[in-house]
Amino acid sequence: xxxxxxxxxxxxxxxxxxxxxxxxxxxxxxxxxxxxxxxxxxxxxxxxxxxxxxxxxxxxxxxxxxxxxxxxxxxxxxxxxxxxxxxxxxxxxxxxxxxxxxxxxxxxxxxxxxxxxxxxxxxxxxxxxxxxxxxxxxxxxxxxxxxxxxxxxxxx
Length: 156
Known about the structure:
Elements: E1 2-11, H1 15-22, H2 28-31, E2 35-39, E3 49-54, E4 59-68, E5 72-77, E6 83-93, E7 96-106, H3 110-115, H4 118-139
Antiparallel strand pairs: 1-7, 2-3, 3-4, 4-5, 5-6, 6-7
Helix pairs in contact: 1-4
């Protein structure tokens, strides 16, 4: 069993400013839907790991399964009996960026999580996440680059 949700929205922000946030885990708590803090031991690379503390207290080791410079970041985390894949994509548009965030849940517990209503609850969180990302990207200083060392930012 697998289920998937996504949010696509356009915003008047530069794709590079959005992607800069994707590659700086210290910013994830400012826009991520369930992130209390996130940190990596260095620059993000395919196969690397970002530790993320969820807003309900658990720390997950998220493996970077795909990283396309300036465009996309895909993370995988494997809680017991599930696989969670989070996809973050930014594309240029005439007015700024098209942003697509998706969440896919698969594995033996995916059906149960669907029955208890997680897709609907997480869809609302994903919708808010993209809006927050656009807001944060619009306030980002263009001179700031992605963090290359451990980042930690408290929940907003």
